[in-house]
Amino acid sequence: MAVFVYAENINGVYKKAAFEAVSYAKAVADQTGDTVTAISVNPTDSSDLLYKYGASKVINIKDEGLKNFSAKAYAQAVSEVADGNIIVFPHTTDASSVAPMLAVMKNYSLITNVLEAPESQSPLQVKRKAFSGKGFMHAKADGTGVILTVSQNAFGVKENAVSGSEEVKNLSVSNEDTKVISHEQSSGKLDLKEAEIVVSAGRGLKGPENWGMVEDLANVLGAATACSKPVSDIGWRPHTEHVGQTGKAIAPNLYIAIGISGAIQHLAGVNSSKTIVVINSDPEAPFFKSADYGVVGDAFQIVPALTEKIKALKG
Amino acid sequence: MKILVCISSVPDTTSKINFTADKSAFDKNGIQWVINPLDEFALTKAVKLQESQGATVTVINVGDATTEPVIRKALAIGANDAVRVNLDPKDSFSTAKEIASVAQNGGYDLILCGKESIDYNGGSVPGMVAQLLNQPFVNASVGLEVNGAEATAVREIEGGKETISVKLPAVFAGQKGLVDEKDLIIPNMRGIMSARTKPLQVVEPVSAEVKVQGVSYDSVPPRAAVKMVSPDNLDELVRLLHEEAKVI
Ligand SMILES: Cc1cc2nc3c(=O)[nH]c(=O)nc-3n(C[C@H](O)[C@H](O)[C@H](O)COP(=O)(O)OP(=O)(O)OC[C@H]3O[C@@H](n4cnc5c(N)ncnc54)[C@H](O)[C@@H]3O)c2cc1C
């Protein structure tokens, strides 16, 4: 029986989270001796991109009614084609809206925010994030049907090329409950949850006019930008950049925290980062206790200098 | 208009998270309990709709008697009445099932929840409730207006936002932005006094069917000691990031 995976695309283009979910599904399938079937809704990208991570079959749902996202309609569509016991989703905003509805439709167990490949199969047990990054839970599914959502940047994208085939499924799911009025997407900006490197700053920066140096550093690193909660509360930065317990939880390879004290609620959203660098003028800032590398000093001097040095390294 | 707000009682955000010696459960010793911060946005939004459109606001919590102080706090913030389903919830599905069962005959136009709880981070209850009731579901809501039998919601999408119209009844999961942070209601003395006399109905669970079990828990391993780098030697920081951590 195949392991199914929902390969999310945005405007037809696969997200990194989709490749990560397929990589994860492949690891699950290798445990059970199965193959991976990916499902996507109205993609324009080539299925080759999914074969590369281990999907040996790609089902492309074609449905004009699904042009606009609706959690319920998407769950209905996925339930019509996914007939395996395990269905993997990325834990993105949209996919994690579809998964709970699908779990009820199919009467499956749902385990969200999973971090690693299952520890055991039948019953399926897996490690997941809990307590906003302050702990881990080993969750066991009762019953055979299971839906898993994979925490972004936790398992990683792993190439595992197989030869694959594509099937087009024409559906016409009714999507009458919700209607899109307008859609705003800032183009060209790196998605914070997908970013490998995140440069983040807090109230220590004193005002929104000082974010230029944060953006410069982010640019040379190819990083996304983030901020602490008070910074978005005051309106210095959009609240979509707020990371922490009540904002976004992220897990980049490198997190650079500038002028952020390191309050427990902030740490909760960033302590899954693989490497943490803290720049703070206060040697007693709690963040240093959770950092890998620390620099005590004035951000206004350190950040531009660091940017120049990284620029030099990158040649 | 009738609104149902789902609230979860969670450890205060400053809590140190510990597990019992056998690692089989969260250690509740010495924990302060609060309304899940993301649910507070939903509750405040409901109270604002109550003020502007004359809605009635009922809060629901699935929990044992120890959650009542948190329910009273929600009443002090402005909900009209409350329901507690007398079950210490074990997973998202059992919680959603109880909420849906209470909602089933309640004739609610809106069900508002927080996007996820900050303890078990399931993010699953709102969508499950919607599906159990066969209603539309809008996750990550950062704006909501109601006009008759329809609502206009703004939801966060990756790298942007989307405005949609939604046929009611429907379920919305909110987060920061649904109301402004500064508009969150802090209960005043009058609210606290009146909360004591507001109706809090306790109902027994209809089903305790669990689909996921927490088998064991681990704490996050501590990071290795921080390496401090002099601000005058940023070349060393760049070298460490490049050669040791291999992240740039
Ligand atoms: C319910 C609840 C939920 C919360 N959720 C979150 C959350 O999700 N995310 C979050 O971030 N916070 C959250 N908080 C807030 C959190 O407790 C802290 O208040 C917040 O993280 C502090 O932000 P900050 O570090 O930017 O600001 P501050 O605490 O003001 O710290 C600023 C830091 O900058 C340093 N600094 C000042 N000048 C300079 C300089 N020139 N160069 C270098 N460093 C300098 C200072 O030494 C200080 O350490 C929450 C709080 C509550 C009560």
Percent of residues in helices of chain A: 25-40%
Distance between the amino and carboxyl termini of chain A: 50 Å
User: What does the main sheet of chain B amount to?
Assistant: 9 strands, mixed
Rounded to the nearest angstrom, the radius of gyration of chain B is 21 Å
Strand content of chain B: 25-35%
Helix content of chain B: 25-40%
Which structural class do you get from the secondary structure elements of chain B? Answer: alpha/beta
The global form of chain A is: globular
User: DSSP helix count of chain A?
Assistant: 8
Spans of at least 5 consecutive residues with low confidence of chain A: none
Give unreliable regions of chain B as ranges: none
Largest sheet of chain A: 7 strands, parallel
* Quaternary structure state of the chains depicted: heterodimer
User: Could you tell me the mean pLDDT of chain A?
Assistant: 96
Secondary structure tally: strands of chain A: 17
SSE series of chain A:
EEEHEHEHEHEEEEEEEHEHEHEEH
Report the principal-axis shape of chain B. Answer: globular
Let me know the number of strands of chain B. 13
Structural class of chain A: alpha/beta
Rg over C-alpha atoms of chain A, rounded to the nearest angstrom: 21 Å
InterPro entries (chain B): ETF_a/b_N (IPR014730), ETF_b (IPR012255), ETF_beta_N (IPR033948), Rossmann-like_a/b/a_fold (IPR014729)
Protein name (chain B): Electron transfer flavoprotein subunit beta
Family (chain B): Belongs to the ETF beta-subunit/FixA family.
Keywords (chain B): Electron transport, Transport
Can you give keywords for this protein?
heterodimer; A: about 325 residues; alpha/beta; 7-stranded parallel β-sheet; 5-stranded parallel β-sheet; 8 helices; globular; B: about 250 residues; 9-stranded mixed β-sheet; binds flavin-adenine dinucleotide; ETF_a/b_N (chain A); transport (chain A); Electron transfer flavoprotein subunit alpha/FixB family protein (chain A); DHS-like_NAD/FAD-binding_dom (chain A)
